[in-house]
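Subject: Interface between my chains keeps coming out wrong

I've been trying for a while to get a sensible model of this assembly. When I model each chain on its own everything looks fine, but I need the whole thing in one frame so I can look at the contacts. Pasting all components below, labels as-is. Any help appreciated, I'm running out of ideas.
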Amino acid sequence: MALCYAFIFLPVGVLVLFSFQGGDLPVPPLHGLSLRWYAAAFNDGRLVDGFANSLLVGGVSSALSVFIGFLAAFGLARYEIPGKALLRALIMLPLAVSYLLVGMGLLVSASVLGLGPSLATVIVGHVVINMPLAFAICQAQLGEHQRRIESAARDLGAGTFRVLFGITAPMIAPALIAAFCLCFTLSWDEFLIAYFNTRFQVTLPVVIWDLLRGGLNPETNAAGSFIFLVSISVMAVVEIFLLRRRR
Amino acid sequence: MTHLVVETISKLYGASAALRDVSLTVAGQDYVVLLGPSGSGKTTLLSVIGGFTAPTSGRIHIAGRDVTEVGPAKRPTTTVFQDYALFPHMSVEKNVGYGLKLRRVPAAERALQVGRALEMVGLAGFGRRGIHELSGGQRQRVALARALIVEPQILLLDEPLGALDLNLRRQMQDELLALQRRTGRCFIHVTHDQEEAMALASMIVVMNQGRIEDAGPPARIYARPATRFTANFMGESTEFSGIVEAPGVIGTKVGKLPHEGGAAGAEATVIIRPENIRADGGGAIALGQARITEAVFQGAHYRVLAAAESGQRFNLRMPPAAAPAPGDVLTLSCAEVDLVPV
Amino acid sequence: MAVGMTRRTPPAGLLFALPALAWIGLFFLVPVLIMAGYSLHPLNDAGVPGPLSLADYAAFFAEPAYVQALVDSVVTTVIVVVASTLLAYPFAWCIACVVPRRYQRIALIAAILPFWTSYVVRSYAWLLALSPVGAVNKTLLALHLVGRPLMFAYNPQATELGFVHFFLMLNTLTIYASLTQINPRYELAARDLGASALRGFLTITLPLSLPGVAVGAFLTIVLCIGDYVTPQILGGFRELLLPQLIIMQVQRQLDLPMASCMSLLLTVLVALAYLALQRWLRIARL
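Reply #2:
Try treating it as a single job with all components included. I did that and got this:
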């Protein structure tokens, strides 16, 4: 079991360790510790732009994913609709196919419509792949207990929208936040769809990719370690919210 | 022929004791019921007998063999769990035949025995069904068949009837009893329901806070309980408390009553069951007069609560024909043999 | 109040699900259909989509290099699925059954922590470790175990290693989830009836955990066969996998119809995998 852990942590260990490399190459031997590569990374315009773009894409796509995923979960959980199973399968479908397909589909469609590559397409693509997850998370939280509280609210005279946004959403707020964080992390990391559909305005993973073309460089280590840190922090937030929920 | 000997078993979890120096002897064909409230240790005791929990001290002997160190696989006991624990990925016949398969019984012989076992529990022809297709009562029968087919020395049942509704429970009680008689094996059954215990057991073991309060045939346990807890747990009663005035006599609010043992001056209690208090003046021991405070119709009788001027409260039964009403004054008496010291 | 209740007619539910369904329909189904259509209009000599024809599909199977890439993709995926499942199961089992309950959460989180490095970054990190000047080689040299740096990177094995590393974590997660869902009473009952620890595991725990294994395997197949990053960074240029071909078609040949054709073939492979694993996947959904 220890071997497994060692195997799992090897690349990340090497990555983080050599981001502090004093020398010029992110490989042994380690010439003392230094933060200069982090400084270089933060000063690198491309990286900073990529970071900003990733934030934009992540934020917008996650918000959209959670919003329409929540609505769909509510609709399917609370109302009797014919062919519910089919609809559910349809919503979850993107999870069962490769990101390649989604990215390619959008690329080809954009090309057919005469649209160029853009961040908007990436946002659209990310919603396609993340919304099913948000849907699944919300659906798991909309059980009998919640239904009874909603019925009580209706009984007292609340209309549907008030119930939805005033009662249900706040009730499952931790799940919504967890879903948002998960979608954000996945969007933040996502490469293929972004690569296919952007040219000049790129997200962080694509920037790193371009950097890689230039060979091994501790600056990339620094950027990579930073990405790792952000991802972990976001997931830590999720853990705390989900943990508190587990009564 | 002692079949099971529990020898001063204790089970400690840190500072708290689930079982304290519990000792018990059971004969081969007994239907034993471990009866008690939650936390009394009855389930822990069952678990120790079955080999799932190792005792902190003490020994267990089954059929003359010391099995304290032996795990559940090798112990001659099988258990019917509270949620039945039927293997969801196997059919009924595969579930029932599992134990035989482990014992390398050849397939043809196995099929025969499984068929017989299913017939015995009234599920003939159910072999091919999946577990999820069965009702609660049917699942329990499969669990019974699975446990009995390997011919254990002792069958352990952990609150088997808890999940069933009232009618089904009564029916299953009859079936369990019939099954035990037919197979002639020792059953040990855990429950918190005293009526269930009295219906099934040839021996009731009343437990409380990790100790055995009383053990014996249901009739004796009910009529002459050894301790106050047992008396209260087995049913309602009227208590007379007082001080021992002389050997064999205690003084209570209703006067002197016969009693056994106890040093002079010590506090003592005698109880009497509601059905043994008479309001028709026929009993040898006079219990004084009391005014009815409540009379509740229960179908076959009235449950009557009465209070005397001395403060003594009475709980008795009266036939419907007597038509008792609150405010009536009763003259109460009883037979000497019905007064039980606890 | 009774009047208000009748507002709950079926169409209302559909209304809520509409944005989601519309999004999927518009931005997923339609693009895929467009792509499918595109694949049927191969480029003519002028570099413009020509008339309806299956020529691209024929061309794909006629070209040995392309077919080889397809085969390599399938073989690599199979190796990766088998290897990561075989490694992940004991690992997940240790976390679920050997580690005391209190530490299980931490153990699991520790096991999948590197999951959260960016995909690109992770493959890059493996390159760092495996390259001729990387950590592994330097260590071997320092320990005098080898005379020259060994070629760990830029070959198919490196790609597989990179994949297995990632999917080990994924499968550990799914198998762990599946194992902890099994009612522990089942194994107790099996032991009670006379099963040894091994027998109990083989006849009860293992079969009941298979749906979880299937889910992990399916996700692995989907993600592995469609991955571009790992083979591109670690694989060198001798053996190309299908996703790399697709990107080449898009970027170098500018042949979108061919790329679409290849993408659809990839999806067919995934669909085949789904059909193969369907039985267990359906149980898992229950």
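Reply #3:
Confirming on my end. Confidence is low (pLDDT under 50) at residues 1-8 of chain C.
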